[in-house]
């Protein structure tokens, strides 16, 4: 198959996924971000990269956002929020973070394929995204893409849609956001 046909199929899969998003879950997620003092993000592997991209956009909005594990990450408190991106919702290191955040009375949100997972059961908010887990034998969801690619792409697009919703609620535009863009490049 030609590359442009693969791309067309990936875009089709992403469109199908967007149509399955639960707006109520997404709205609760946005509202919780808006009332949190600080927002912490975490994810493993490629999901972690998507979470880092989200943290950058939150920073561009003037929200105190941090990536768990970075040397400048402060302490979490009961006024804060931990957002975890995990296809399985079972990654042990992320489960440990969720448990620690809950013990400190921070709110926990999970964006996942499996809201019924261990992290999902701990989370205050679980947003279900479509996708196929790395181990395709545990899912009936069909994708041409390898491993967790569809989830990771959908995660990035979901996070970007959340940013647009936050921008709308705060009356921001790209110019407002660009004012906080890195300028030591």
Automatic annotation (TrEMBL):
Residues 29-172 form the SIS domain. Belongs to the SIS family. PHI subfamily. PANTHER family: 3-HEXULOSE-6-PHOSPHATE ISOMERASE. It comes from Paenibacillus germinis. It comes from the Bacteria. Pfam families: SIS. InterPro entries: PHI/rmpB, SIS_dom, SIS_dom_sf. Transmembrane segments: none annotated. This is 6-phospho-3-hexuloisomerase.
């Amino acid at each position: 198959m030609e590359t442009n046909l693969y791309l067309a199929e990936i875009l089709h899969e992403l469109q199908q996924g967007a149509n399955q998003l639960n707006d109520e879950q997404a709205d609760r997620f946005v509202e919780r971000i808006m009332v949190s003092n600080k927002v912490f993000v975490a994810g493993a592997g490629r999901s972690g990269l998507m979470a880092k991209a989200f943290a950058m956009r939150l920073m561009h909005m003037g929200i105190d956002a941090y990536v768990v594990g970075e040397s400048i990450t402060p302490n979490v408190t009961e006024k804060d929020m931990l957002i975890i991106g995990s296809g399985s919702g079972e990654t042990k290191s992320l489960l440990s973070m969720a448990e620690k955040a809950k013990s400190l009375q921070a709110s926990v949100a999970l964006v996942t394929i499996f809201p019924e997972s261990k992290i999902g059961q701990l989370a205050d908010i679980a947003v279900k995204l479509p996708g196929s887990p790395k181990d395709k034998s545990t899912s009936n969801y069909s994708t041409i893409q390898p491993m967790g690619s569809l989830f990771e792409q959908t995660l990035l697009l979901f996070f970007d849609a959340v940013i647009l919703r936050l921008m709308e609620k705060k009356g921001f535009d790209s110019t407002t956001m660009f004012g906080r863009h890195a300028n030591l490049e």
